[in-house]
């Protein structure tokens, strides 16, 4: 049926009507914050407020930190495509969301797609499932587990790191230059794989070792398709279902499973005696009381716990190592003071406890994670309507709430001259001045990162081994400004490179 007497006029009118309907659908939520009297940043059709992330000009953490800086009130509304999200800037409200009133915000707002391995991974679980899996996973991430099960792997990886640096320096063509992002990656692969699988990864010795391939498959930021999938899980859950996206690269997941179950077979047959997370998982799987109290660990559930550990311990550790060495190169006096403390480590000591008590090393670690937080932003889903104390505002059930760690850590109100690297912020005299809730590199509250104890000790061991016998310096003045990788979903160096000059002492 024609609207006009001419098909040439009807076709453009029909297309125009379709465009108007599409625009109305895509912008249907854009007045959400206005109707509630909450300030918001004007969104764009199709992308909301995250156009820089979709164009890979900023990583999500940088984008949210930019919103934080531009916000001049306690909170501001933004949009993920068409989904309303509340960015909280007020510190007390952020503490309520994360800690005090956590029972209203127990879930992460990540995507969940049935059939994907992520449905059994702790960060992506919700409700009672999350509580149960957190309860039985907690011992595997405890301080005692790091000390008894994983610390020896870190020390072994540290020895491999030292040998690698020596070999590089012996090669005159290297000119003493080492990519510290790659150095951190190899250390982390050796340390994490030994801790998870109880076997040697040989990451420093074999460029194309199976475990380095596995890590690259999970963290290949140059792969735009992979980055899109990960960003969708974190920021655009609807796209995950619509497009059938996988959190882990299918080839990397297949490789991980193959290695995992080959090692399970070896351990079952007594062919491998290493001690790692995999041994704990196998013990749980055989234990009838564990199945009755928690869950029957089938193949996918077992692998998911190992992948969770791998993800939690690997990439954040890698980047923090490279950032810390970069700041040591930029700040020679800090480097020398840290080296002096390292030189005083006595032989034949309980090394784990001694490293844990090293004051200046801890200050350097904390200042590194203050300036470059491994978790630059985090989200929480409101699981029941929440009335904001002291106001009439209600955060509705299902609303996603963002908190910007990168924004808070670099806010001059909390950390004067935040661009300066100053470990003295965390000295015994000054640490009491830090306002509660302003330093949370691994998030805070019930959903804080379970791998933080492992990651903290890993970075400290890597720094000790990197600086004990070597001086590190910048290659040239062009390195005075650190740029972040805009294609990554966490804070890490641009182009996966932090090339520094090493000198044997």
Automatic annotation (TrEMBL):
<keyword id="KW-0812">Transmembrane</keyword>
<keyword id="KW-0256">Endoplasmic reticulum</keyword>
<keyword id="KW-0472">Membrane</keyword>
<keyword id="KW-0349">Heme</keyword>
<keyword id="KW-0492">Microsome</keyword>
<keyword id="KW-0560">Oxidoreductase</keyword>
<feature type="binding site" description="axial binding residue">
    <location>
        <position position="449"/>
    </location>
    <ligand>
        <name>heme</name>
    </ligand>
</feature>
<dbReference type="InterPro" id="IPR036396">
    <property type="entry name" value="Cyt_P450_sf"/>
</dbReference>
<dbReference type="InterPro" id="IPR001128">
    <property type="entry name" value="Cyt_P450"/>
</dbReference>
<comment type="similarity">
    <text>Belongs to the cytochrome P450 family.</text>
</comment>
<dbReference type="GO" id="GO:0005506">
    <property type="term" value="F:iron ion binding"/>
</dbReference>
<dbReference type="Pfam" id="PF00067">
    <property type="entry name" value="p450"/>
</dbReference>
<dbReference type="GO" id="GO:0016705">
    <property type="term" value="F:oxidoreductase activity, acting on paired donors, with incorporation or reduction of molecular oxygen"/>
</dbReference>
<dbReference type="GO" id="GO:0020037">
    <property type="term" value="F:heme binding"/>
</dbReference>
<keyword id="KW-0479">Metal-binding</keyword>
<dbReference type="GO" id="GO:0005789">
    <property type="term" value="C:endoplasmic reticulum membrane"/>
</dbReference>
<dbReference type="InterPro" id="IPR050476">
    <property type="entry name" value="Insect_CytP450_Detox"/>
</dbReference>
<dbReference type="GO" id="GO:0004497">
    <property type="term" value="F:monooxygenase activity"/>
</dbReference>
<feature type="transmembrane region" description="Helical">
    <location>
        <begin position="6"/>
        <end position="26"/>
    </location>
</feature>
<protein>
    <recommendedName>
        <fullName>Cytochrome P450</fullName>
    </recommendedName>
</protein>
<keyword id="KW-0503">Monooxygenase</keyword>
<keyword id="KW-0408">Iron</keyword>
<keyword id="KW-1133">Transmembrane helix</keyword>
<dbReference type="InterPro" id="IPR002401">
    <property type="entry name" value="Cyt_P450_E_grp-I"/>
</dbReference>
């Amino acid at each position: 049926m024609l609207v006009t007497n001419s098909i040439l006029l009807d076709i453009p009118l029909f297309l125009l009507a379709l465009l108007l309907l599409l625009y109305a659908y895509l912008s249907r939520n854009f007045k959400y914050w206005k109707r509630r009297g909450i300030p918001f940043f004007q969104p764009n059709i199709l992308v909301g407020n995250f156009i820089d992330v979709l164009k890979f000009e900023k990583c999500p953490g940088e984008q949210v930190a930019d919103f934080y800086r531009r916000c001049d009130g306690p909170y501001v509304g933004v949009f993920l495509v068409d989904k309303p999200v509340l960015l909280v800037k007020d510190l007390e409200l952020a503490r309520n969301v994360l800690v005090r009133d956590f029972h209203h915000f127990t879930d992460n707002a990540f995507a969940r797609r049935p059939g994907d391995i992520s449905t059994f991974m702790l960060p992506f679980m919700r409700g009672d499932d999350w509580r149960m899996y957190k309860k039985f996973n907690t011992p595997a991430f405890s301080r005692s587990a790091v000390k008894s099960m994983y610390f020896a792997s870190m020390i072994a990886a540290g020895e491999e790191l030292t040998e690698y640096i020596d070999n590089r320096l012996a090669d005159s063509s290297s000119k003493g230059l080492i990519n510290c992002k790659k150095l951190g990656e190899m250390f982390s692969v050796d340390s994490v794989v030994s801790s998870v699988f109880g076997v040697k990864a040989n990451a420093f010795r074999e460029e194309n070792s199976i475990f380095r391939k596995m890590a690259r498959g999970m963290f290949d930021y140059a792969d735009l398709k992979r980055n899109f999938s990960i960003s969708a899980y974190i920021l655009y859950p609807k796209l995950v279902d619509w497009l059938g996206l996988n959190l882990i690269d299918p080839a990397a997941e297949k490789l991980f499973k193959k290695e995992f179950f080959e090692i399970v077979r070896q351990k079952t047959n007594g062919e491998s005696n290493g001690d790692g997370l995999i041994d704990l998982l196998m013990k749980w799987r055989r234990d009838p009381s564990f199945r009755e109290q928690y869950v029957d660990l089938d193949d996918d559930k077992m692998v998911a716990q190992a992948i969770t550990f791998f993800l939690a311990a690997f990439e954040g550790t890698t980047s923090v190592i490279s950032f810390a060495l970069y700041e040591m190169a930029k700040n020679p006096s800090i480097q020398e003071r840290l080296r002096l403390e390292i030189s005083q480590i006595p032989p034949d000591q309980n090394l784990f406890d001694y490293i844990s008590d090293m004051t200046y090393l801890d200050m350097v670690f904390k200042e590194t994670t203050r300036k470059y937080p491994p978790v630059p932003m985090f989200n929480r889903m409101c699981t029941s309507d929440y009335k904001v104390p002291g106001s009439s505002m209600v955060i509705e059930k299902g609303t996603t709430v963002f908190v910007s760690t990168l924004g808070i850590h670099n806010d001059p109100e909390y950390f004067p001259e935040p661009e300066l690297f100053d470990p003295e912020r965390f000295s015994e005299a000054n640490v009491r001045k830090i306002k509660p809730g302003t330093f949370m590199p691994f998030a805070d509250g019930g959903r804080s990162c379970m791998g933080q104890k492992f990651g903290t000790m890993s970075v400290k061991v890597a720094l000790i081994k990197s600086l004990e016998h070597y001086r590190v310096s910048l290659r040239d003045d062009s390195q005075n400004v650190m740029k972040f990788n805009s294609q990554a979903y966490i804070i890490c160096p641009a182009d996966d490179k932090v090339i520094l000059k090493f000198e044997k002492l």
